[in-house]
Design brief:
The chain is mainly β and 109 residues long. It has a single domain, classed as SH3 type barrels. 0% of the residues lie in helices and 43% in strands. It has no helices and ten strands. It has strands at residues 13-16, 25-31, 36-39, 44-49, 60-65, 68-69, 73-77, 82-84, 86-90, 96-100. The strands form three sheets. It has a six-stranded antiparallel sheet, with no helix packed on it. It has a two-stranded antiparallel sheet with strand order 4-5.
């Protein structure tokens, strides 16, 4: 089975579209699966952590970014300076690249 070409990848600059962090911009830290991403500075929660001396983890309350659904984030288009939808197209040389739907500009060169 071929690996799917994900429209949002690790390191992408994205904008949160819905929820308490709507409008925030951040970088994708992790793509958990095809449906969930972790965005830097978005969806932060306070998590109570138990101490674990075996792993050297100190207990307490930590701030942590939790996953967002991929439909709630959109790639940031620097040319238009707004969030934009992304498509995938095949170039003449056979490469598959992502492009912005609004202006057709290629995301990854």
């Amino acid at each position: 089975m071929a690996k799917a070409k994900l429209k949002i990848r690790k390191g992408d600059d994205v904008v949160v579209l819905t929820g308490k962090d709507r409008g925030k911009r951040g970088t994708v830290l992790r793509v958990i699966d095809a449906e969930r991403v972790v965005v830097e500075g978005a969806n932060r929660v306070k998590k109570h952590v138990r101490p674990n001396p075996m792993k050297g983890v100190q207990g307490g309350i930590v701030d942590r970014e939790m996953p967002l659904h991929i439909s709630n984030v959109a790639l940031y288009n620097a040319a238009a300076s707004k969030a934009d939808r992304v498509g995938v197209k095949t170039l003449e040389d056979g490469r598959r690249v992502r492009y912005f739907k609004s202006n057709g500009e290629v995301v990854d060169a």
